[in-house]
Design a protein that fits this description.
The chain is α/β, with parallel strands linked by helices and 425 residues long. The protein contains 18 helices and eight strands. Strands 3-2-1-4-6-5-7-8 form an eight-stranded mixed sheet, with helices on both faces. Helix 2 links the parallel strand 1 and strand 2.
Length: 425
């Protein structure tokens, strides 16, 4: 079934009753009864404290929660003169459809600014509202991405993949391209609504990176805002982030295919404006299972090694084999090898004849290996010192962009048997 809108009839009627808003704040959610009230409270306080003369509407865009998320959201009392709508969105399940409903609402209400924040945030404060919305309202920015103070082993997909490719491929140094908490100007909101993406897998998986890349390649004014610590339902990369890796990387590679004419001519990377000051405090640590990460990497070589050998150049494959021979506490998959691995996966994805997501599935153990290596490299470092390692790695990706273009245009020849066997696994 094709959905022409993410709005249900009730939503449309409520929006018509409200008529106009200056600011729309959207909160996509699904089974977040433990955190949704805190997020709404901080948003409500922030709007009152920093934008008291603006008329806001807070929209809770729910994916059909089976707990009491919608009930507690409906019962929560906002500050005076603030409107609230709590509704299940209409369309395929996923954050993308939740955002579609929010963006359509902002367009109907002719809001000058729109902000979205995740519903599982535990560290959000009223100041986040100021930091995200002020660049749009007072500095005419179209797209505001967050910068968080995060523990060194939180955000491993961002640190090892998305941050590197966003600045190396698309030329913008955006530290948290999939941060989840963004602000948008009216023109960008209208642009998003008009895109033919809301019925696709992008809307279900990887919507945050899509929002960021679309803002970059279409010339919208981008900036970043320091929000401080991000504490949410953090996940151990060895246990929970495999599906997210596949979703985000597949979307990112698909975007690289679609926008090849945009990024091939981009040289170097560009710093973009940053609002606010970063925190120097050490964030709350999260547990990681180094043993499981290394074991998953080694198991991947055992299961997929023959296939990997056909995808990667001999130097890369030799480095993968060498890493698999090292015990967990000395394990290393070097940054320069990781650059070539990721670029060669992207090139293979570009020329893969069918079921490209399956290719990404087969490469997931390599991500585990790079995370394990990063943990060992930074074990005795503070999160601030580990950030320097992240930046050094990102610089390697930027410097090696010619290598990406070379393998993109001249892929390794993978045998028909390789393709067939990959589909079977």
């Amino acid at each position: 079934m094709k959905y022409s809108s993410g709005l249900r009839a009730y939503m449309t009627k409520r929006l018509e009753e409200i008529e106009k808003a200056d600011v729309v704040v959207g909160i996509p959610c699904f089974n977040n009864e433990q955190t949704i009230v805190h997020v709404m409270r901080m948003v409500s306080h922030g709007l009152k404290d920093y934008f008291p003369d603006m008329r806001p509407v807070i929209i809770v865009s729910d994916g059909g929660s089976t707990d009491d998320t919608r009930d507690v959201a409906k019962e929560f009392q906002l500050k005076p003169w603030q409107e609230k709508i709590v509704s299940i969105y209409r369309g395929p399940g996923g954050k993308g459809t939740a955002l579609r409903m929010i963006f359509e609402s902002a367009r109907i209400l002719k809001a000058e600014a729109c902000m979205v924040v995740d519903s599982d945030l535990r560290s959000i404060t009223n100041r986040w509202v100021k930091m995200l919305l002020e660049p749009v309202i007072t500095n005419d920015c179209d797209f505001v991405a967050p910068i968080y103070t995060r523990y060194k082993y939180d955000g491993t997909i961002t640190n090892n993949i998305v941050y590197n490719l966003t600045q190396a491929v698309f030329g913008k140094k955006i530290r948290q391209p999939i941060g989840g908490d963004f602000a948008f100007g009216k023109n960008l909101v209208n642009f998003y609504v008009e895109q033919d993406v809301w019925e696709t897998d992008v809307a279900r998986f990887g919507i945050d990176i899509w929002l960021t890349i679309q803002a970059i390649i279409n010339g919208f004014r981008t900036c970043q805002a320091h929000l401080g610590r991000k504490i949410h339902d953090a996940k151990d990369p060895s246990a929970h982030l495999g599906p997210m890796f596949r979703q985000v990387v597949s979307t990112l590679f698909a975007l690289m295919e679609e926008t090849e004419h945009n990024w091939k001519s981009v040289v170097g990377t560009e710093d973009i404006p940053v609002f606010g000051e970063g925190s120097q405090d050490e964030p709350e640590p999260i547990d990681v299972n180094l043993k499981k990460l290394v074991s998953s990497f080694k198991m991947g070589l055992t299961h997929f090694g023959t296939l990997w050998q056909e995808v990667f150049c001999p130097d890369c494959f030799d480095a993968i084999k060498a890493a698999a021979a090292i015990d967990e506490y000395r394990f290393r998959l070097p940054s320069d090898t990781w650059v070539r691995i990721l670029y060669e996966i992207a090139a293979t994805y570009h020329h893969w004849p069918a079921n490209q997501r399956r290719l990404v599935d087969l490469m997931t153990p390599l991500y585990y290996g790079r995370v394990a290596s990063f943990i060992n490299e930074t074990w005795d470092m503070s999160s601030i010192d580990a950030e320097r390692v992240v930046e050094e790695q990102a610089g390697l990706f930027v410097d090696a962009k010619d290598y990406l273009i070379n393998v993109w245009d001249n892929p390794r020849e993978c045998s028909t048997s390789f393709m067939t066997e990959a589909e079977k696994i």
